[in-house]
Amino acid sequence: MGEWVTLKASDGFELAAWRAAPNGAPRGALVVVQEIFGVNAHIRSVADGFAADGYLAIAPAIFDRAERGFDVGYEPEAMARGRDLAGKIDRAATLLDIAAAAKAAKAGGKVGIVGYCLGGTLAWLAAAKVEGLAAAVGYYGGGVPGLGDLMPRVPVMLHFGERDQHIPLDGVRAFAAAHPDTPVFTYPTGGHAFNRYGNAAYDAPSATLARQRTIAFFERNLG
To answer: Nearest to residue 44, comparing CAs of 116, 136, 122, 109?
Structure first.
């Protein structure tokens, strides 16, 4: 369903992106932001899944500024490499790459953003700093509770697992209390990366409910 394309950011940098188009006219568009493992098979399948739901989905390869074509699995060595790259990319430049994806996605109508892990944090940042977005959803963004001073310019929905060993639940609850207008959902059986289908982290009840809420949220805000 998807294909690789090239995007150009406003600073002239070119990066790869996975573009998945729906059958028929799009009902809206989504920027899909990766975890630390690159635009790998999982993220491509997430984009393809949103395309199957009728959205034009574009997943920018935000690690291209540090290492082009980064695409790994989930073994410890790969995780260490991903964390290293996440520390090397400049957040401001990354937002330029996300903005380039949003600009390309406008062909599908109003544009939302959805991100996972690192991408969940970036979705929250983008909601406050990137123009051209109409809604944002973040899944288990570890940096979100520490960015509570940001004020999003568009509606945001956030998802966290209550069994997430990387993101303290107290911090999530404090963030939610400070942002009463932002729906923050927690999932009792979900750990970190509970949406990562085909992986040991996957938790079907959490992933299913979070996706239902996400699709309904985008239907309200991108329709």
So the answer is: 116
* Euclidean distance between CA atoms 116 and 139, whole angstroms: 5
Give Cα separations from 143 to 4, 16, 45, 216 (angstroms).
Answer: 29, 25, 24, 25
Q: Could you tell me how many residues make up the chain? A: 223
Cβ atoms of 56 and 32 closer than 8 Å: no
Q: What is the rounded average pLDDT of the residues 58-71?
A: 98
Active site residues: 117, 164, 192
Euclidean distance between CA atoms 7 and 3, whole angstroms:
13
Whether the CA torsion 105, 219, 196, 147 is positive or negative: it is: positive
Structure-block tokens of residue 63:
């690690």
Read off the pLDDT of each residue in 45-54 and give the average, rounded to a whole number: 97
Question: What's the CA gap between 107 and 132, in Å, rounded?
Answer: 12
- Is pLDDT above 90 for 103? yes
Going by their DSSP bridges, the two strands 29-33 and 156-161 should be labelled as unpaired
For residue 151, give both structure tokens.
Answer: 């004020």
CA triple 21-197-85, angle to 5 deg: 80
pLDDT of residue 223: 83
pLDDT of residue 76 exceeding 90: yes
pLDDT of residue 194: 98
User: Which amino acid type is present at position 30?
Assistant: L
CB 57 within 8 A of CB 43: no
